[in-house]
Amino acid sequence: MHSFSEQCLDMARSILGHNLDSIQPDGTVLPAPGEQPRPDEPGHIAYALGEYYRGTGETTLKGFDIIDLAARCITAQMFTEPAAENGLAYASLALLCFGPSKERNPVWERLVEETRQRIDKQLLHRSDYDNHWQAFNVAKAVARFSFGLSKKDETSRLIERMVDRINQTSSNGFFDDSTEGFGGNFNLYGVMNFVFIRSALQLHANSGVRDRKLPTLRTYAEKYIKMMPDLVRADGLGWAFGRAAGAYGQMHCISLVLQGLRDGWIADDQKPKYFDLLRRLFVFFYHTYLDQEHGFLDLRDTERTAFGHHTTRMANFDAARYLCQWSRLAKTVQMPSGTTKPDNSKTLGRFVIFDKSNRKEQGLFLYRDGESGLHAQIPLISSGPTLVADSLPFPHCPGVFDWPNNVYAPIMLPELTFGTNVTLPAFYGKNCVTGLGLRNSFYFRYEQPDLINTKEEIVKGLGSVKVQWNFSGNKISAEFAYTVKQQVTLDKFRFMLAIAAPHSKYRVGGSLALGPQGHRCTVQKDDFQATWQETEVVSEDPTYRTNYGKIHYLQHLVRDHPLIMRPGQTYRLAVNFEPDVVQVEG
User: Fold this and answer.
1) Are 491 and 418 in contact (CB under 8 A)?
2) Fewer C-beta within 10 Å: the chain N or C terminus?
3) How would DSSP label each residue in 237-268?
4) Cis before residue 82, ω within 30 degrees of 0?
5) For residue range 265-317, what is the model confidence (pLDDT) as tens digits?
6) Which helix (H) or strand (E) holds 500?
């Protein structure tokens, strides 16, 4: 792992070298062209500089004084109004990277008295969150105690409070990022939450606290670690659904696996499998998001986009920070003797239960076809505060089944409009079942006793739907069976497909794509009597991009005139897909 460690540090140097000149004299950052800065960016920058210093001991890079830059960024973050709690957390961990106490910290020495007082004030401010922002509270508590700003260490109490909330919102111990409403927003921030807290604990002045809380963290983080072998695609694509996937879907997963290996959370007989998984995750990240020629992270361009809140600058400094952390972690992890062949040749279908209660069931169905390489993630989760296609329950398989990032579209799902209620068979299910069907096929089915609208409000007394997905090799079929409780007028029916292509430059060899025969989609049964519209060409429309490449075509199956739906009758939509799956060259 030593060469991997050095490679990570070299890449971190390169990324920082390309971005340090964007740091302004006042510690704020000059955004990339066409982007707006974020209030928490100075904290992200400072933490990246801190991890670089921690990993190398170097105080200069490309002629820049790292100590001075970090002091400026920390100062800017502390005086940001209104206070950006996430930025404060990153800035406070940055300070700890330069030294465990005020007395032996070169950055603290550079700070003026006004800034030191401001740090004291900002870190002593206590807040409470029931989403992933609680991780930032934990980081602030670590810094508060470690820097002697408080004699009382609240780290343990905050972690226990977070764990209590996990148990209240998930029957299976997964992290729900919802703060209000329907609940069940199980997304990538669950992984980020544990990675960030584990990094904070490593910087805690009292190693006893870290040792006492590690078993608690393990109980929950391990659930995500155990998902990884079935989640990660053969080409190395990691977490691909929900908000903030893409580059961060690789970085958070790599960090979690490396931390798990370092802490002994992965059994010895499983290590070869996880080392292979780590290699694939990293290779995908390296080829898909790093500009090989110039050496920086390329997040969005004319072909692809990213989560709207993630700026290019922030992603570059985050990538540099992660690379420094991976470099350090890799030195502590012993590569197992012998090599392992990835077990991607196996076909599997598995439903990971996130939450199961009387009110709702939510989870993630994972399907992999060993022969064609088709690998799909179907999340049945809340979309959170903003409805986007990223969280909807269809087979997420970039390159084959794509979707527009950051916008809403009913991809591979029937959207039924009744007056003001636009309904989707999404967000929750009841009686979620998965199993083996005929000829080694897999099925995943669930029902909604009450339809739910796009605002994630259950519409009582309207109707119900039963959903079944079937998987056999590279053949996928979906059936949606609707019944209404009383006569009602369906105003509009919509079903969409997106056809995209992998990035022309940023892609890894062996990634999946659609061949010339496309999805080979056939509508087996349509009681809504919808018709295919003329294919919409969106190649030049910046609204329709993915995290991985450009969407070229949208296909709409639409009924735009009313249909009287009657009780006692079942209205079915059954659609078959046999995608022409090919592998692209790198």
Assistant:
1) yes
2) C
3) ----SSTT-THHHHHHHHHHHHHHHHTT-S-G
4) yes
5) 999 999 999 999 999 999 999 999 999 888 899 999 999 999 988 999 999 99
6) strand 492-502
